[in-house]
Amino acid sequence: MSDHEMMEKEEIFSKVLRAGRRTYFFDVRATKAGDYYLTITESKKFTNDDGSFHYKKHKIYLYKEDFAGFTEILNEMTNYIVEEKGEEVISERHQKDYQKSYDSDSSTNNDQKVSAESFTDVSFDDI
């Protein structure tokens, strides 16, 4: 079997989501028993001091028995974030422009609130 045939056999179904410095690869793969499972790979691009690049990758394996639970929680989390904060991205660059009118006390409280909640967020690194 040629390398190309091996590649075709390996990649049953794939999609790519390019998102700035991050790229997400969704790949359907086969178990030894011939069933299918999903891998989600986050690849993040870093620039080295000499201008060259390197990538850091994190991979999640998702099996059929976990699809329903995973999808349910992912939908719940994404809906929660959009309901709480809207779809528009709130960036630190906006903050500096906006917060000139705020006094320093209120921004300190915001920071504490964020750090207290942020440990409950699940990132790719934690899984």
Automatic annotation (TrEMBL):
One Pfam family here: DUF3276
Superkingdom: Bacteria
InterPro entries in the cross-refs: PUR-bd_fam
Segments for region (Disordered): 88-127
Residue ranges, compositional bias (Basic and acidic residues): 88-103
Comp. bias regions, Polar residues: 108-121
Keywords recorded for this protein, A-Z: DNA-binding
Membership in a protein family: Belongs to the PUR DNA-binding protein family.
Descriptive protein name: PUR family DNA/RNA-binding protein
